[in-house]
Design a protein that fits this description.
Chain A: GO terms for molecular function: peptide transmembrane transporter activity. The structure holds two protein chains of two kinds. By secondary structure, chain A is α+β, with helices and mostly antiparallel strands. Chain A is built from 19 helices and 24 strands. Chain A is about 30% helix and about 20% strand. Chain B is globular. The chains are: A alpha+beta, B mainly alpha.
């Protein structure tokens, strides 16, 4: 009797489980878009984007949380989204935001000025909210107030002509995301709140997540469709799936098991296309890749001997052969960096000013000049071809994120170049989460490969301000917003900071700016707190088997980096393939 | 069976003679010879290669990328050239230089780890078996506990935390996990040998413990130890290659496992760069077959019953 009961219970449970599984799979493949995720979701139940970890780029800020504005990389305009206008006063110290009418959270509550004021105040009053966007708001905003339900006024600490793009415009990767006041106001400590049942204003709601995937389903009751802002997007389900390395990424793409893949090398892309002609990229032909605005550089911890000596850093800069990095690590799909800036047309006046002033970096190496600087610092070449001083070899550990072949191979090339010039360099590959969570922000490295001057796309200040001495913290403390992780804090840094601060108050397009950039750049050139390497190129395969409407150079409604906050635009542009 | 019955006397004679010859010199075992030749081939490749080939080609960026071996074409329709006869990889390294450097490196790690592990194992095994008592208990429990720990797990954690390691360091680490089986096996052998007449005779004649252990008993265990050693080399190489294929071995020193890791990581399969992963895999296969043959050969030598009779 008992046994039969138990068997029945067990079979009922099994039935429930299988039907549950069936429920989870009832969206057809052709109604699903599967995006590639290049990292593990360490804490899939945590959606507190203010703290570090994978809490946004697994779909949360592409599908669920919408930005106020989106910078359009192709037109240069700020496309309105949840906001409709953002107007400054005459001296850029006050900014007035107008919010779109009719926006709703997915639980039906209205999205309005209270949410904006609450979220900004929460970031202002809580140092523990450490993400870059929150730290930037803290560094800029003095006060935020509600004018009416759809109007918010920001009063800034200093004039900032770029306040709107910088904080709310998805200029690089993300934006300051507004959180629902009716949920977060109940929270005791916003730094530890997990937001495990996240809601947003976007057309998709959270369904489930594990360490290797996150699933989002369409909310047919989305405010945008009701108000006529936009039609509902076509995909019924979005999945972000961790694919692992380049090989598995490529195989999944070739066999139509993902629709958008992270960066691959050009050889792999050609191989995918050979097997699956439906796969496309930004350009239809060589070099296929989209120029990413985050130029690559060698980060240096300027507090660690011997790299606390500016001449030693300059020596490394001389030894690096950028052309070889382009040819070996990028297989010719990018170009060498001349300055810290992304080589976009809109940045040309500033890059030209730096190059004309004589601070541009050469594409090839001058090993002899580098070695002369090392010898001037008291080193002599040992019998093993490595410099030594007081019996100790000149060595350096270069930390590199092991998530992509692009990163590790660039550092392999740099390590080789340094070794041949007499510096015993060694690559230390670390896992993505450790790299961004522990190595970079806390200065736990000698040198490292990253893109921390990334920020500027149409004006120079945003990148330059990342290396001012305002952001210097001791090794072991978290650099605010990954700014000045080099901990560059010399007299030159102070002189640099003075010029950059002055530049910050000038309006975009002010004719004085290029000369000021060149003037400030002399300190970067003299002390090299970081060494610009090459421009970044992202070769992102898109699959047109199930979905068309991907961003390409012909269909350029915006750029193709689908891990950014602007991916809302991509998703709205997708159409079911015939 | 019937054929043996019907075969003429002369053939049986010849078979007997052959068997007798085999008994005369058990070391002339074909398996042993084949296995040793395969290993010698790899060692020779490493030694001779160093004289005839430019080993600077082993470093990143020293050759054109992704060239196929001579006589083949890659996906871009480039043909292999004699400058790089086995092709090049995606980082601009010559495959021939990689295997000249890498194959002996892999073998070296295996040999060194095994040598250390064996030395520890022999010492502990003899001590435990011969001295007995508390010492025996301690060693036995220690090795029994250690044998249950999966080495790869510990090594992965260790190397992931440590980042880059040298070949010697890696060998030392692996050695920490290969001493337990020899310890146990030798202890068992020693226990059974301890009661044999010649050992008791030696004890009666006042020989010291180390003398009995290493001068009287050890020579009788030599073939047995060799077998155990070779098995350990295999285990060590498998462990080392396993770590390297996960990307956890030495970074700049070429090894076969690391080459395979980089090939997989860079999408060599989908790009059909078979020489990048295929040639190191083939060499590893040769190495393992060589070790296996040696092991089988040594088994036959130490255990005459395994020898074939015809």
């Amino acid at each position: 009797m008992r046994l039969t009961k138990m068997v029945m219970l067990a079979s009922a449970a099994a039935l429930a489980l299988t039907s549950g599984a069936a429920l989870a799979q009832d969206v057809a493949r052709e109604d699903t878009v599967i995006f590639d995720l290049d990292r593990t979701i360490k804490d899939p139940g945590n959606f507190n984007w203010f703290t570090s970890g994978t809490k946004r780029q697994h779909g949360a800020h592409q599908a669920m949380w919408e930005p106020l504005f989106i910078l359009n990389y192709e037109t240069g305009n700020l496309d309105p989204w949840l906001g409709t206008a953002f107007e400054p006063n005459g001296d850029f110290t006050e900014w007035t935001l107008s919010i779109r009418e009719g926006v709703e959270w997915s639980d039906g509550e209205a999205f309005n000025a209270d949410d904006v004021v609450f979220t900004v105040n929460m970031a202002l009053g809580n140092e523990e909210l450490s993400q870059r966007e929150a730290a930037t708001i803290r560094g800029q905003v003095a006060m935020v107030e509600k004018i009416d339900d759809l109007t918010v006024k920001f009063t800034l600490q200093n004039p900032n002509p770029r306040f709107h793009v910088e904080n709310f415009g998805v200029r690089i990767f993300g934006s300051f995301l507004i959180m629902p006041e009716h949920i977060w106001s109940e929270v005791e400590d916003p730094a530890t709140f997990a937001f495990a049942e996240p809601i947003g204003t976007g057309p998709y709601t959270f369904t489930s997540a594990a360490t290797n995937r996150a699933i989002w389903d369409r909310n047919d009751n989305w405010w945008g469709a009701k108000t006529g802002f936009m039609d509902l997007p076509e995909p019924l389900r979005l999945i972000w799936l961790e694919t692992g390395g380049e090989e598995s990424r490529a195989q999944l793409m070739a066999s139509n098991q993902i629709d958008a893949a992270q960066n691959v090398t050009i050889g792999t892309f050609e191989a995918i296309q050979a097997r699956n002609p439906n796969v496309i990229a930004w350009h239809n032909g060589y070099p296929y890749a989209w120029p990413d605005p985050c130029a690559r550089q060698l980060e240096i911890n300027t507090t660690v001997a011997p790299w606390d000596d500016a001449n030693m850093r300059k020596a490394v800069a001389h030894i690096i052969d950028r052309n070889q990095i382009v040819n070996v690590a990028y297989e010719g799909t990018t170009v060498a960096s001349q300055t810290m800036f992304a080589q976009y047309g809109s940045m040309a006046p500033f890059i030209d000013a730096v190059v004309e002033a004589g601070y541009g970096l050469p594409a090839s190496a001058d090993v002899a000049a580098g070695q002369a600087l090392i010898e001037a610092a008291g080193y002599s070449m040992g019998s093993d071809g490595i410099y030594e001083k007081d019996g100790e070899d000149l060595s350096v550990d270069i930390h590199v994120n092991s998530a992509s072949t692009e990163y590790t191979r660039t550092i392999d090339v740099v390590v080789e170049q340094l070794n041949r010039a007499g510096i015993a360099a060694r690559s230390v590959p670390v896992e993505n989460g450790v790299f961004w969570g522990e190595v970079l922000p806390f200065g736990a490295y000698e040198m490292s490969y990253s893109w921390l001057s990334c920020s500027s796309v149409n004006e120079p200040w945003a990148s330059m301000t990342r290396y001012t001495n305002h952001s210097v913290v001791p090794v072991g403390e978290r650099s605010p917003g990954f700014n000045n992780t080099a901990r560059w804090n010399s007299d030159a840094a102070a002189a640099y900071t003075a010029i950059v601060d002055e530049m910050g108050g000038l309006g975009m397009g002010d004719p004085a700016i290029p000369a000021m950039v060149a003037e400030a750049y002399q300190y970067l050139d003299a002390e090299m707190p970081f060494i610009p390497l090459v421009q970044a190129a992202k070769l992102l395969p898109y699959n047109t088997t199930y979905w068309t409407g991907w961003p390409t150079v012909e269909n350029n409604y915006n750029h193709p980096a689908f891990w950014w906050n602007h991916t809302h635009q991509i998703i709205h542009n997708l159409e079911k393939a015939e | 069976m019937t054929s043996t019955d019907q075969s003429p006397q002369t053939r049986a004679d010849r078979a007997t003679a052959k068997r007798m010859r085999r008994f005369d010199n058990p070391w002339l075992n074909p398996k042993l010879i084949w296995g040793a030749s395969l290993l010698l081939f790899i060692i020779a490749l490493g030694i001779l290669g160093r004289f005839v080939w430019n080993l600077d080609l082993v470093f990143t960026g020293s050759t054109p990328l992704k060239l196929p071996p001579v006589g083949f074409e890659n996906l871009r329709r480039q043909e292999g050239v004699w400058d790089y006869p086995l092709g090049t990889d995606g980082g601009g390294r010559d495959i021939l230089a990689l295997i000249i450097m890498g194959a002996p490196n892999s073998l070296f790690v295996g040999m060194l780890a095994s040598l250390i592990g064996m030395s520890v194992g022999i010492t502990l095994g003899f001590t435990a078996g011969f001295v007995g008592g508390r010492t025996d208990d301690t060693i036995r429990i220690l090795s029994d506990v250690m044998i249950t720990i999966p080495p790869l797990l510990i090594l992965v954690v260790f190397q992931a935390a440590y980042g880059d390691v040298s070949l010697t360091m890696m060998a030392l680490l692996i050695a920490c996990f290969v001493w337990q089986s020899p310890t146990r096996l030798i202890r068992a052998q020693v226990l059974s040998m301890r009661t044999s007449g010649y050992v008791q005779m030696a004890q009666l004649s006042g020989a010291s413990t180390p003398h009995i252990m290493f001068r009287e008993m050890l020579p009788n265990l030599v073939p047995y130890l060799f077998g155990s050693f070779i098995a350990n080399v295999t285990t060590s190489i498998v462990t080392a290659v396993g770590l390297e294929v996960l990307g956890l071995g030495p970074q700049r020193i070429p090894t076969l496992g690391r080459t395979i890791y980089e090939a997989i990581n860079a999408g060599a399969l989908i790009q059909n760069l078979w020489w990048w992963w295929g040639i190191p895999t083939l060499l590893l296969a040769v190495m393992f077959i060589g070790l296996l043959l040696i092991n089988l050969g040594l088994d036959e030598i130490s255990n005459p019953r395994l020898r074939k009779l015809s």
